[in-house]
Amino acid sequence: MNLFNQDLKRVGVLTLFTLLCLPTSTFGFQQTLRLSDLYAQIAQSDKSEMIIENKRLIDDLPGDIENDIELFTDELAALGKVNIDYDSNGIISKVESIRFINTSGKDVAIRYLNIPEIQVLKGEFQNFYLVNLNALSLSVDSTKTVNEYHLAYSDIEDYGEFENSFGSSSLSENHFTNFAFIAGAQVENEYYIIENHFEDGAYFGVNMGEGFTDFRMFDNTFDPIEREMLQYNADSTESFLFKTQLNVIHFNPVSQWVLEGNIFNKGYKEELIHLEGNAETLIVGSNEFGNTLMIDSSISKHWNFINNVFGNRLDITQVVLGAKNNSLDWASMSGFKLSSNIYKMDIALNAVDANDTTGLWSELFMQSAELYYDIYNAETDEELAQEVPYQDLISSYYRLYKVFKENGQIKDANKIYVEMKDVQIRELKYLWRTDGGRENFINWRLNGLLRFYTDYGTNPARAINISIAVLFIFTIIYFFYPSEWDTKSKAVLIQDYKHFVEKNDKGYFKPFMKLSYGIVKSLLNAFTLSLNSFVTLGFGSIPTTGVARYICILQGFLGWFLLSIFTASLINQILF
Question: Which pTM does this prediction carry?
Answer without folding.
Answer: 0.81
